Structures are given as structure tokens and as C-alpha cells.
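Take a record.
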Amino acid sequence: MAVDRITHIRMKEVSRPLKVFFATSLGGKSMMRSLIVTVILEGGASGSGECPTSAAFPGDTMAAMKLRLAGWARDLKGMPIEGWEDRVRTIRRRHASFPMAVSGLETALFRAFLNHRGLREVAWHGGKLREIETDITIPFIPEDPGLFPWVDHAVKQGFRIFKIKVSGHVEEDKKFLSAIFGHPGLRTGDFTFRLDGNQGYTPRSYFQMIDFLEKTGIRTELFEQPLPADDYRGLREIRRHSPIPVILDETVVGREQLKRVISENLAGGVNIKIAKSGILESLDLLAMAKEAGLKLMIGCMTETMVGLSAGISLAAGTGAFDYIDLDGIYFLHHLKKYGAIEIRPPCFFIGE
């Protein structure tokens, strides 16, 4: 096959209102903002990726990402698309403080390569599944009048798995969870519940919350990232004594962090997000976690289908994930179809 070179890398800023205020222990927002990156090849093939913004990665501001991407675009222009993997690994190693900017560029390069070769993304990942079902998030908005309409909307849409954001302030979280679990829409039906602390807890407050859950009979499938990302001592403590699985998100961006999690037995599973780890690193994390016997979650940021579709393709292609958390598109007004992906809550269906 003839060599095809990169001719342009373009950026477009997008912002969209969210259907409900999205709040976690790290902060809140009513709008999503992303950069869409498109790589165009000499032969006409192209690919796009998404660089979202998130309080979890404060270095990846819109201005910083634009600046970095402009520099990388200059360096990559004229390069053959073959060998994109080595170039991405070099950029990620040199610019570790900008994981989501790198990941958006990487996804665009990866897709341009696939389109140049005439390959389909889900098939490239293995083509295992044609349907995946996601959970949906209940943001931490205890005083917001939109809370219960959002819950009712999710139930009506057919969602059966709910990921509830908690703040790390135990008394506030107790009241919030009591209200959620006391809501008529969730008292009947076969629902599964997960908690996400977004780094808001300490070991002490975590076990206070666990005691509350046990005393009230509130059953949760897992607890995601309760402690600060670098609190390894605390993670060891709760890993030893927690009665429910702890899944790590912000603690694990790349292979080095996951190596430590595995070697020190810090968690029961890991949340892999293409937005933070990119294509190549996500595949490495998947293989390492699977070999170590960890549970696998695939997650997302608040992204459009440009970014979210990369996670959907990985999940459907590999069929490897125990927990699917790809709900970002449901916070936006969206079409019912994106390429080969049909969006029918709570599922994504992958066509030919």
C-alpha cells in the first residue's frame, strides 16, 4: 500500500449545554467543552478524536490544549501515517501533564490510519459484541430541583444501572443517598447501584460511609475512586477491609500507575478511559489488568459521540469489560445514530 502522509491537523472547539447540572466532589458544570481534532491525509482519508475538559485533569484547559496541539500539528505535518503509534508514545511520554490533549490527537491519528487501510474500528478491536448496555450517572445535586426529574427520566428511558456521585462529606452524602434510595422511582424494580467518590473521601470517612450503607441495607455493587489519586497508603487500608470492590479511576492514567496498583494490591479493579489514556495505553492497561485478575470498567468524560464512540468501539470490540460507564452522550441532546452506532437507551448497537 502506498505511503500516505499527514497534510493537515485541524481543531474545532465545541460547547453544549447539559440536560442536568453535572456535579461531583471536584466541582460542577452546566456546559461541556471539548476540542475536536481532525487528522487529514494526502490520499483523502481522515480521522477525528476529542479532547474534553474535566476538573479531574486541570492542566488540560482549552487554551493549553490548543497550544500543545498546534505544536504537535507542526511536528507531524508531512509525516507518514504509518508509524503513528511510536509518535504518539513519544508525545505522551514528553507531555504527561496533558493526557486528554494527547488522547484526542491519538484517536484522530488512529482513525485516520484505519480509514487509510479500509479497516473498521470495532472489528480492529476484535468485533466481539454488537450490543453493550451502559449505566447512567446521578450527579451530586442534592438541592437541585432537577435531581428527581433526571432520575425519573433515566428510569423511563430504561436504565437499570445507576452510578451515584457522592461528595466525601459523610453527613451530606447520607442525606443524599437516603433521598435517592427513598425515591419512588427507584424503590421498585431490578436496579443496580454504584458509588463514585471522585477522590472526595479519607479512609476514615470511607468506612463511615460503608457502615451507613450496611446499617441501612443499601446495596452497592462497587465504590469508584473514593480517595485522592495519590493516597496509596489509604488505598491499601481500604483495600484490606472494604466489603465491596474499589475501582480506581484517577489513580491510573498509564502503565506505571497500574503496575503499582497491581504490585501493592491497591484495588479490585480499574476504570479505563480513552479520554485520559488514549488507544494504545488503554489496550496496555486492559491487558495488564486482565492478567492480574482485576475487574475492568470502561468510562468516559462528558463527551460528544466523537470521543465516546472510541470507548464504545473498544468495549464492543474486545468484550472484555465487567462494567460499562459510557453515559456521557445521554447528558446531551443527540441524534439516534452515529456512524455504525445506534443509540437506544440504555444500550448502544453496533451495525455493519
